[in-house]
Specification:
Mean pLDDT: 81
Number of strands: 16
CATH architecture of the largest domain: Up-down Bundle
Bound molecules: adenosine-5'-diphosphate, magnesium ion, zinc ion
CATH topology of the largest domain: Methane Monooxygenase Hydroxylase, Chain G, domain 1
Structural class: alpha/beta
Number of domains: 5
CATH class of the largest domain: Mainly Alpha
Radius of gyration: 42 Å
Largest sheet: 6 strands, mixed
Distance between the termini: 100 Å
Low-confidence stretches: 1-8, 136-146, 156-160, 609-615
Shape: elongated
Number of helices: 21
Helix content: 40-55%
Strand content: 5-15%
CATH superfamily of the largest domain: Peptidase M41
Length: about 625
């Protein structure tokens, strides 16, 4: 309906503008055109030209005089004055009297020229243009104005990208859930026989880069049905109602093509909770309402299945996530150790690797990395190999590329003073030694004091042996102690402190705060949550949910907790001062030491000393 009306409206606009243009044309352009040939001068000029004998032709009528110069190159016009001897003087000056110097247009012709012809022209052009636009609108894509209400969902042709479930790794649960859908689309009868119906909608939720979009593409690759893919932001339009009409169009197309899959990526762009505090957003709310209506409007067995992905599930409107719309929520979490190894293997197929490459170790080092980051690590490693002129990717390339992802590139021209380098060496060994001297902390993998582009002057890499799902209070405390170890070493050895501990301080505080406000690990608060996580998958921001007095108390406890661990770290380092010195000297000389070297030095020194003491 809308689309039929719209052309008329735009034509009316067009005529309005044409009329305005026409008036402007008559006001400014036309007078200039007719004045071009005939100059209007005052009577004085005429008289002086007559006296000088510079008059060629002249024509006098009842209200004006038209004349030319002697050469008849210029045309002039002037008014008529009461001048009795004019004719005589002109005759004497040698002027030639003529009644046809210029052709004067009759009023009718003027009228025709300035009003009727332009109007006819404008109308003709207008008709032509509008016909042109109508043709395009009818003929398919390409017209700007008439295409606005159409959804531009791409239909994936089967295997256009060739992505299959085998290209996705480490998210087995999600894969299982989705392969059921594929199976249903292939053979609905076995589900229908038992009375089961497929979920109408499936929501993939998880942090960025875990493979949500990839999974949806794999479903498209596996299922032999049309696959409509559209991003939530594509529904967002400038005009109220356009998004809603796109939704309508998308579902109309989907129903025609059923059985099929509709994939809405980043659905949070349209699915945000309605009735926000800032007066709401009409266009978005209408789009969402339309989506809700459409999802209610079809039977769950008609073969249209909706997949959607988001990394902000908590911001979605509850009406959207309720059963009956998105019945099933499939978490796509960060991969665990085994998952990371599998992802590395899947992506590793694309690269030429040396035989010594050990993905298990890389996976262990890259704890917390998402699928996208792992793919990136592999690519960085390959780039590094090319840079060095090698044709195979080595284990070292991969390890270095993890460090690049964690800490940035090695800074080639950063020159630390001797004193600074010494401080950094002690700082890093401080972390490593505190970690090694406590039970339940991850083994040290590598310590380096090569400056990085991220600004880190050095770092200590600890790598967990396996998966870690739970953390005890003691483990977190040890972690905090390890963070404070760097600063503790500086204090112990140099008696002063540096800015180098900024990042350690931030992390230690974060952990201590979480212990008290979220994990119930403080003495007085028992199991009361003082903070809630508002943004689970995007950074994990928190918001306080307690009174101002409690906040003060929380702050006090956080300080006390960190202080206690800082003291513990200082004690450990004091007790192992000899090892601290030896290790720091070693690191200072070599710039990088591996976990094994570190442990070797630590243990070698320990034995003889103990023996000495026991003797
Ligand atoms: P998002 O979850 O943010 O939609 P994508 O699906 O777009 O993430 O993933 C981006 C890229 O990361 C993919 O193209 C793929 O190369 C890689 N990737 C992410 N997760 C996985 C996974 N589980 N298995 C294999 N590759 C993955
Ligand atoms: Mg995505
Ligand atoms: Zn540090």
């Amino acid at each position: 309906m809308n689309e039929v009306k719209r052309p008329k409206k735009t034509l009316a606009y067009f005529y309005c503008i044409a009329a305005i243009l026409l008036m402007l044309f008559n006001l400014f352009v036309m007078p200039k055109l007719s004045d071009q040939q005939v100059k209007t001068v005052d009577y004085g000029t005429f008289m002086s030209m007559t006296e000088e004998g510079d008059i060629g032709l002249v024509d006098i009528t009842s209200n004006r005089i038209i004349f030319t110069n002697k050469d008849e190159t210029e045309f002039y016009r002037t008014g008529l004055m009461d001048d009795p001897n004019l004719t005589e003087r002109l005759y004497k000056a040698g002027a030639e009297f003529s009644s046809e110097i210029i052709e004067e247009q009759s009023p009718l012709v003027t009228m025709l020229l300035s009003w009727v012809i332009p109007v006819v022209l404008f109308v003709a052009v207008g008709q032509f243009l509008s016909r042109q636009m109508m043709n395009k609108a009818g003929g398919g894509p390409g017209s700007l104005m008439f295409n606005m209400g159409k959804s531009n969902a791409k239909i994936y042709v089967k295997s256009s990208e060739g992505i299959k479930f085998t290209d996705v790794a480490g998210v087995d649960e999600a894969e299982e859930s989705l392969s059921e859908i594929v199976d249903y689309l292939h053979d609905p009868s076995k589900y229908k026989d038992i009375g089961a119906s497929m979920p109408k909608g499936i929501l993939l939720v998880g942090p960025p880069g875990t493979g949500k979009t990839l999974l949806a593409k794999a479903v498209a690759g596996e299922a032999n049905v049309p696959f409509f893919s559209i991003s939530g932001s594509e529904f967002v339009e400038m005009f109220v109602g356009m998004g809603a009409s796109k939704v309508r169009d998308l579902f109309r197309q989907a129903k025609e093509k059923a059985p099929c899959i509709v994939f809405i990526d980043e659905i949070d762009a349209i699915g945000k909770k309605r009735g926000g505090q800032y007066g709401g957003n009409d266009e978005r709310e209408q789009t969402l309402n339309q989506l809700l209506t459409e999802m209610d409007g079809f039977e769950s067995n008609n073969g249209v299945i909706i997949l959607a992905a988001t990394n902000q599930p908590e911001s979605l409107d509850p009406a959207l996530t309720r059963p009956g719309r998105f019945d099933r929520r499939v978490p796509v979490e960060l991969p665990d150790l085994k998952g990371r190894e599998e992802i590395l293997e899947v992506h590793g197929k694309k690269f030429k690797l040396e035989d010594t490459v050990d993905f298990a170790k890389i996976a262990r080092m890259a704890s917390g990395a998402s699928g996208a980051e792992l793919a990136n690590i592999l690519n960085e490693a390959a780039l590094r190999a090319v840079r060095d002129g090698r044709s195979l990717v080595s284990q070292k390339d991969l390890e270095e590329s993890i460090e690049v992802v964690i800490a940035g590139y090695q800074k080639k021209n950063a020159i630390l003073t001797d004193e600074e380098k010494k401080i950094v060496a002690y700082h890093e060994i401080g972390h490593a030694l505190v970690a090694a001297m406590q039970s339940h902390s991850a083994p040290v993998e590598k310590i380096t004091i090569v400056p990085r582009t991220s600004g880190a002057l050095g770092y200590t890499m600890q790598v967990e042996e396996g998966n870690h799902y739970l953390m005890s209070k003691e483990e977190i405390e040890n972690k905090i102690a390890t963070f404070t170890g760097g600063r503790a070493a500086e204090e112990l050895v140099f008696g002063s402190v540096t800015t180098g501990a900024a990042n350690d301080i931030e992390q230690a505080t974060k952990l201590a705060r979480a212990m008290i406000t979220r994990y119930g690990m403080s003495e007085d608060f028992d199991m009361v949550a003082m903070e809630t996580v508002t943004n689970q998958y995007l950074g994990g921001d928190t918001s306080l949910t307690c009174s101002a007095e409690t906040q003060t108390e929380i702050d006090r406890q956080v300080v006390a907790l960190v202080k206690k661990q800082h003291e513990k770290a200082s004690r450990i380092l004091r007790e192992n001062r000899a090892k601290l010195d030896e290790l720091a000297e070693n690191l200072y000389a070599n710039e990088t030491i591996t976990g094994e070297e570190f442990m070797a030095i630590l243990n070698a020194k320990e034995e003889p000393e103990k023996k000495l003491v026991s003797l």
